Amino acid sequence: MITPATAPAAPGTGVPWPPGLVPYVTRWSAEHELPAPVVLARGGGGTAFASEQLHDRDRHGVLWIRRQVHQGGGIPLFSKVHSVRQRYAMRRLRCQVCREPADRSEQDLLWLLEDGRADRPDWPEREVAVHPPVCRGGCVEKVTEQCPHLRGNWVTVRVREPVLDGIFGRLYLPGRPLPVPATKVTRL
Ligand SMILES: [Zn+2]
Questions:
Q1: Distance from the CA of 141 to the center of ligand 1, in angstroms?
Q2: CA 188 to CA 62: how far, in whole Å?
Q3: pLDDT digit string (tens) for 11-65?
Q4: Separation of CA 11 and ligand 1 centre (Å)
Q5: Do 112 and 124 contact (CB within 8 A), yes or no?
Q6: Most CB atoms closer than 10 Å: which of 20, 39, 76, 113?
Q7: Alpha-carbon distance 161 to 88, whole Å?
Q8: 135 C-alpha to center of ligand 1: Å?
């Protein structure tokens, strides 16, 4: 929830960001990455946190950055997603804007995508999305008005078989004394 005490003024309005205006998955400026030194995992396979806790890794063994959860703190960073909320909404198929269950019929689920019809003839088959699905409670209209890269360039699609199959993250290379952060990669 956005609390008036911490919510700054929305541009041009002089009033705080109203609750519900900022999408659920959006990261806020006060949600900093927490320091967690990355070390070589025991046995030499991959990376680990020096003080790794059970919840730092998902069930696929992926190590997730530690980030503060302070929704409503600072200003919304509309081009960034919060990794915890994004994962939650993707895994539970919640609306990326309001966190309610995404719109689903018996056969399919509602998704909002950048219009890619010009990219390939069979689009959107096998399309990869980094944003969770949406509901039908007005969230499509809300997010397409806010989001500059979607404005005038979006479609909704019904997805029959959504599959969680990828991670976007930071690749580390072997280094001494510690692994060295390299590029950001997508792993399917
Ligand atoms: Zn919604």
A1: 10
A2: 12
A3: 444 445 655 678 999 999 999 999 999 999 888 778 999 999 999 998 888 899 9
A4: 23
A5: no
A6: 76
A7: 18
A8: 4
